[in-house]
Design goal:
Shape: elongated
Order of helices and strands: HHHHHHH
Number of strands: 0
Structural class: mainly alpha
Distance between the termini: 80 Å
Number of domains: 2
Strand content: under 5%
Largest sheet: none
Length: 153
């Protein structure tokens, strides 16, 4: 089915050219889409088929990567479907794309004081105090006089 791959590759080239003309780089999307075209051609597909796109995306190692791959095909399918209704649009949300961010550590009063005692450098005390000030409004007022006192000396 070399014709199917050529058809998808032509559509991909058009899609990339139009999106790049709009200012998008699409470096990853280009790799994903041409990889998808080869995979779809091996399956005998000449257009985007939702199940083929999901199966192709499942080959990625991580959940986030699967989601990125499928989203690239979804964007391409939306674009291509405008001129050819044979393209299917894969469903969104098949793969969870959210990365879990680590919970930030918030310094309490004792931890900030311990850091300030450990370091005798006035500059570091002012920096740590500044972090404390911007991190939590209630801490601002007790430290305001401290930072003014340190910077005036």
């Amino acid at each position: 089915m070399a014709g199917g791959c050529a058809m998808l590759k032509d559509d991909i080239a058009t899609y990339l050219a139009v999106r790049r003309a709009g200012g998008f780089k699409l470096e990853d999307d280009e790799l994903y889409l041409y990889s998808f075209a080869r995979f779809a051609d091996a399956k005998g597909d000449t257009h985007v088929v939702a199940q083929t796109a999901i199966t192709w995306a499942e080959q990625a190692c991580s959940e986030a990567q699967r989601s990125q791959r499928l989203k690239a095909v979804i964007r391409f399918a939306h674009f291509s479907r405008a001129t050819d209704s044979h393209h299917e649009i894969p469903p969104q949300g098949v793969f969870c794309s959210r990365r879990r961010r680590p919970t930030p550590y918030l310094f309490n009063d004792e931890a900030v004081q311990a850091l300030m005692i450990l370091k005798k450098s006035v500059e570091l005390e002012v920096i740590i105090g500044g972090v404390r000030i911007t991190g939590a409004k209630p801490w601002y007022y007790p430290l305001k006089s401290f930072t003014q006192r340190v910077t005036q000396n």
